[in-house]
Design a protein that fits this description.
mainly alpha; 136 residues; 0% strand; globular
C-alpha cells in the first residue's frame, strides 16, 4: 500500500519521514482501518485535535502546542493519519508484548500519549466545555 502523494509531501515537510508502506497485502488491509482505530484510541484516551491555522478557532489554537496539530503535524487527508500512529509506535520502540495481544487502540493510545504527553491534561477543560455546549 502506498501513501497518497499529498501525505508523502506533508510527512517530508515535517522532517523527512520515510514513506510508510505495508509489508504484505494482509498488513495493508489492516492499515486500511487504522485511521478509524487511531481516532477512536485518541478519543478514548482524552485527546483533542488542535490546529495552528489562521482559520482555526481559539480553542484549537490554544491546544496546538501540546496536541496533534492538524495544520502542521497531520497529513492533509485523514485517510493517511495512520502514518502518524505508525511513526509514533516506531519511536516508542515498537509494540511491546502486551501491545501485541491487546486491542490496536491500546497500542495507538500508548504511542500517541508518548508523542504528545501533555495533550490529555490540556484538552480536559476543552472537552468539558464542548460537552456543556452540546447539552444546551
Amino acid at each position: 500500500m502506498s501513501a497518497h502523494p499529498l501525505a508523502i509531501r506533508h510527512f517530508r515537510a515535517l522532517g523527512g519521514f520515510k514513506e510508510i508502506q505495508a509489508d504484505s497485502p494482509s498488513q495493508a488491509a489492516v492499515w486500511a482501518s487504522c485511521t478509524r482505530i487511531m481516532l477512536e484510541g485518541m478519543d478514548n484516551a482524552g485527546f483533542l485535535l488542535a490546529s495552528s491555522s489562521d482559520e482555526a478557532d481559539a480553542d484549537a489554537k490554544a491546544l496546538a502546542s501540546v496536541c496533534p496539530d492538524m495544520y502542521k503535524e497531520l497529513p492533509v487527508l485523514p485517510d493517511y493519519w495512520y502514518g502518524v500512529a505508525v511513526d509514533a509506535i516506531e519511536k516508542t520502540g515498537g509494540p511491546s508484548f502486551i501491545d501485541r495481544v491487546a486491542p490496536a487502540g491500546w497500542l495507538i493510545g500508548r504511542a500517541i500519549k508518548a508523542r504528545w504527553p501533555r495533550c490529555v491534561d490540556a484538552a480536559r477543560p476543552y472537552i468539558v466545555k464542548a460537552r456543556k455546549d452540546t447539552q444546551r
